[in-house]
Amino acid sequence: MLISPVEFFRTLPKKECPECGQHMEEQAESYLMECDRCLASKDE
């Protein structure tokens, strides 16, 4: 059974930060994996 693309994207789980587990706001133009809080605490 095929589902519509709209239904597919609607049922995807929320993006989660691998460092702290916090749910993140999806942004189409962002490829970041960590949340802002974890990124700010890293030394780069």
UniProtKB/TrEMBL annotation:
Q: Which domain of life is it from?
A: Bacteria
Q: Which InterPro entries match?
A: YhfH-like
Pfam name, any one:
YhfH
Query: What name does the UniProt record give this protein?
Result: Protein YhfH
